Amino acid sequence: MMRVGLTGGIGSGKSTVAGFFRELGIPVYYSDVRARELMEADPELRGRIENLLGEEAYAEGKLNRAWIASRVFGDAELLEALNALVHPAVAADFRSWSARQEAPYVLQEAAILIENGGYRNLDRVILVTAPEEERIRRVVARDNTSGSRVRSRMDAQWSDQRKIPLSDFVIENMELEATRRAVHRIHRELLEIPGSPGAS
Ligand code: ATP
Q1: 87 C-alpha vs ligand 1 centroid, how far in Å?
Q2: CB of 198 within 8 A of CB of 111?
Q3: Which residues line ligand 1 (CB under 6 A)?
Q4: What is the ipTM, given to two decimal places?
């Protein structure tokens, strides 16, 4: 099974692009959603998180996201330690999920994929980009949050300039119909890759 990464900074439009691939019948694995599920449902992972952060990481059996966010905010080492627990669990889950899919290829959508080296385990990487000011406007409108909060999350991610050379495909997501056409073009290219079931 060919595995393709789909990434992009906050507000770039990863989920929007993922939706276009799904319309073409391509299965999408949403890493961030699945990570939260595994943090709750995988007892081994949960034990390790409690050891690292304390039992307050869970409240009434549920992941205490606000508390965890406040613990790791501004503590890069602790955040790295948490990621070092969560990432291998997600990677293993993604591998077993993708083995069960019937499709010419699958997508792994993740906000952080290049920064942490995760892209090296994938066959191809698609990067979604948009100007930073536009991304801030989109997220402020979507999440009813402030520009400075979006900016601080953005500052924890790599710039597009740094990620572009490590990506196989770049989609500049501004005009939605142009984005849809770019998705169709990339889909056709992926089907032509030798070893893909769609290759002629
Ligand atoms: P995040 O990393 O924050 O989860 P994302 O990269 O998945 O974001 P989306 O949720 O797809 O981004 O898009 C962010 C917001 O911008 C959404 O409200 C979406 O509808 C809107 N949006 C996406 N693409 C465009 C576009 N080309 N033009 C205008 N608005 C867009």
Answers
A1: 24
A2: no
A3: 8, 10-16, 111, 138-139, 142, 173-174, 176, 179
A4: 0.98
Q: Which pTM was predicted? A: 0.93
C-alpha 177/C-alpha 180 separation (Å) is 5
Segments making up each domain of the chain, as ranges? 1-27+101-200, 34-92
CATH architecture of 1-27+101-200: 3-Layer(aba) Sandwich (3.40)
Please identify, by atom number, the ligand 1 atom nearest to the C-alpha of residue 12: 6
95-93-87 Cα angle (round to 5): 105
pLDDT in tens, 50-63: 999 999 999 998 99
CB 64 within 8 Å of CB 58: yes
